[in-house]
User: What shape does this take?
Amino acid sequence: MNQTIEIMKNHRCIRSFLDKEITDAIIDELVAVAQAAPNSINGQQISLIIVRDKEKKRRIAEIAGGQTWIAQAPLFILFVADFYKAKLAADKVGRPLVIPESVEATIAVAIDAGICLQNVITAAESLDLGIVPIGGIRNDPAAMIELLNLPEYTFPLNGLTIGYPADRSHKKPRMPLAAFRHDESYDPAKLPGLIDEYDALMHPYLKSVGRENEVNWSTNTLNYYSFVYFPRVYPTMKIQGFKNDK
Assistant: This one.
């Protein structure tokens, strides 16, 4: 089709980086494409924190559960749910700020962050940079809040590690497209067979990359989804003003 589409279809996560800095000009462009992303009601409720300090990256790697590639990479970007700016606007016009208390706010800002994140990923990969999203920052969101001085009505949603790849990882197989695409209405009947097909595909892939203990997609997914794996998210969100009770 075109080069952009091919870059997006060829995505893979990179967890080994060269000792090579990313220029200020490139970082400025990544920030610009992030800000250009669509957002709900033009509330602009996402902010980015650019982290290049080695000690901070080392600490973020610890918070994320020992993800050493965060410390190794030259650049880490934190994507922040940010209604603090709206709080300042509320104070300015003398109106109450209610929306952060709602589930709708959490959904809307998470969608905005995802769109923003994908813009940065596509731009970075077009510049031959490697990336890996870091959901592990939610392992201890209070520690991230303290480390990066996040005020009330903000919350660390996701991170992105960026650098020049030391190697190109294997491209992970996806489910059959039929399990992803539904035409006109959702078709649950087709899914069990497609999941069986994908599990059969993933088993040899996982073995080839030394992760055979994960067994297949079904087993590995339920290794996470059978419990709340980041239990500190909800209580920390409430402290920050995201009550999720409306």
The longest helix spans residues 103-126. Strands lie at 46-51, 75-82, 130-134, 154-163. The chain has one domain: 3-169+228-240. Residues 170 and 208 are 9 Å apart (CA to CA).
